[in-house]
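Appendix B, Record 12. Input sequence as logged:
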Amino acid sequence: MTSENTRQKPTPASEQQSKRLAGKTAVITGGASGMGRSTALRFLAEGANVVVADFNQATGATLMEEAEGLGFIERLIFIATDVAREQDVEAALVLASDTFGQLDIVFNNAGVGGAIGPLVETTTESWDYTMDVLAKGVFLGIKHAARIMRRQGSGGSIINTASIAALSGDAGPLVYSAAKAAVVSMTKSAAVELAQDRIRVNAICPGFIATPLADGGKPEKTREIFSRSQPWPEYGKGDHIAGAALFFASDDSIFVTGDALVVDGGLTAAGPELSRKMPRTSGRNSKVAGVTKGSTGEEPELKML
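Logged structural output:
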């Protein structure tokens, strides 16, 4: 595994011809698995230098091994990061800027399932944990990305992972939905504030995406459920989100800021109805309560009701 102090040299631009992100540097939080991993590999394939900031060091090591096999290792750094800690977020962004000489793209993607179960069973500790990762983590990423990008004077692109859970009342657990709604609101407000600096700020609102965070260790079952949960007849994949992130990261979206792009196979158009489709963990009839911690490597804290 590459340590925090490892310094890699960027690949010369001459070796990255015809790449959409050639010579650009990106930081991706939660980039060691799921949507973040897919995006990291896509950005690398498009010529970017990438710093992956992730809580889970084991998945970080796996990503580094995969990148080495693909010939990307000289343009990839992993740094262990807790996005709820301001010093961790700042360190990851400074590492990217210092190592590669520029910070062009920040994808605030780190996430957890967080608090689940009925409203009346939700603890303040579960609320705080969920909000710290999903909302405060994005705020910190925007804040420190803006500081560096302003100082550079050449603009940049900030991308935030929100969710369709932010857009309606039955598309995710209550606290998760509230946090993601905060992400959409922060995205719009930051886009207005940073426009004069030529810093674009956009959000992606995924639907049901089959990732380690979502599948609970049962990927085949999750894929089958997700495949019939929206009008589009296939389950959502990390690559689908990576494509949206690439659009926002590249100059193709140079006049797009303050947007919240829905990537959900038509789920929002049809009406999510999460409590009906997945009643065990959502809504007042849920049979379990507590907090889940996604692909962080930490165990969930749950109780049966």
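Residues 191 and 284 are 36 Å apart (CA to CA).
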